[in-house]
Amino acid sequence: MQDKLLYEVALTYLPSVGDVLLKGIVSYCGGVKEVFDASHAKLKRAPGIGDKRALEILNSDALTRAAEELKFIEKHQIQPIFYLDSAYPKRLLHCHDSPVMLYYKGNADLNMPRIISMVGTRNATEYGRTVTEMVIEKLQSHNIMVLSGLAYGIDILAHRAALKYGLPTIGVLAHGLDRLYPAQHKSTAEKMYDQGGLLTEFPSGTAPDRENFPKRNRIVAGMSDATIVIETKIKGGSMITATLANSYDRDVYAVPGNIGQVCSEGCNYLIRTHRAAILDSVDEFLEAMRWTDKETSPAAPRQLQLLSDLEPDEEAIAQLLKEHTQLAIDELTYRARIPASQVAAALLGLELKGLVRTMPGKAYKLV
Are both 219 and 254 inside the same structural domain? Predict the structure, then answer.
């Protein structure tokens, strides 16, 4: 088992190869150890590798560095999670650029049935503080995990509110587990070990460098069923997280703010451009996510009980959305094999009947 882990960790130390290519190499070679046993001739034929990268892989010190990392993992009781392990977050696995390896310290299930991320500005206003606390307080009875980035502002407020109301909370870091940034959040992080934990893709020795934060954000977005943006400027890490969540076909919600308020410009923009649904009621959010705990059976959604009331085009669209969960209007038009004008009319009819809701990116899903 230790030998297996050594090769898995070493894989992440290979130079000039990102997560997408790493998975391709493993598949091409037939296993992780097989990557290190492969000849130059075989490696250079792997998709996206070529002669130069193959030589760099063969001449790397990845195994030596991995052996040192294993000592750190064992000493600090860290759980390494490889992308082929059963413990790997299933939601994240569906993202094409998901990390090959994660390092985790905590006690929560990373595959809980309900997970949200809550993100926002580092300079939270009193409004942002109040909304963050209010949202999490109303989520406390629904067994929902809260993810964020342990940063100043909305992130740390979300973690602390989750701890206060008994919800598991995970801090996703932009550095290794041998340090904590910002250091002022150490006491909160220590409490999270017992009610959630800390998660990162970076090995020990990795500093919180600027380029690591967008990578961190893709984990926050990819692990969540929905991302909630509380407050944000028009540019910033929270906008990156929302964009990533959209690209992964995850739900995005934004809290509206006052016109002209800089820290709400990003949220208002997300809502205005249909990149996020408006979050002005936690009860409506729970209903939209079907997390109200009132449904008798997920196998019998409301729209199936009303098929007899639907027009033929509406019935065809409803059936497609049932099969594919969420589809963009172009995809619906292609799959339904009916004109775009008829698809638009059918979607409007379904919305008026309360059976379909619009998602960011001009996509639709059943209520």
Answer: yes
Q: Is the pLDDT of residue 296 over 50?
A: no
- Confidence (pLDDT) at 13: 96
Q: How many domains does one find in the chain?
A: 3
Q: Is 163 found in the same domain as 46?
A: no
Check if the beta carbon of residue 10 is closer than 8 Å to that of residue 58.
no
pLDDT at 154 over 60: yes
Nearest to 100 by CA among 124, 81, 76, 74: 81
Domain hosting 35: range is 2-75
Q: From CA 325, how far away is CA 216, in angstroms rounded? A: 27
Of the residues 75, 96, 118, which one is the last residue of a structural domain? Answer: 75
Angle (nearest 5°) at CA 365 between 255 and 89: 75
CB 266 within 8 A of CB 229: yes
The CA-atom distances, in angstroms, between 272 and each of 180, 221, 242, 265 are 36, 21, 14, 10
Residues 254 and 343 in one domain: no
Average model confidence (pLDDT) across the chain: 90
Residue 366 belongs to what H/E stretch? strand 363-366
Contacts of 363 (CB under 8 A, 6+ apart): 249, 326, 327, 328, 329
Do 309 and 353 fall within a single domain?
Answer: yes
**352 lies in some domain:** yes
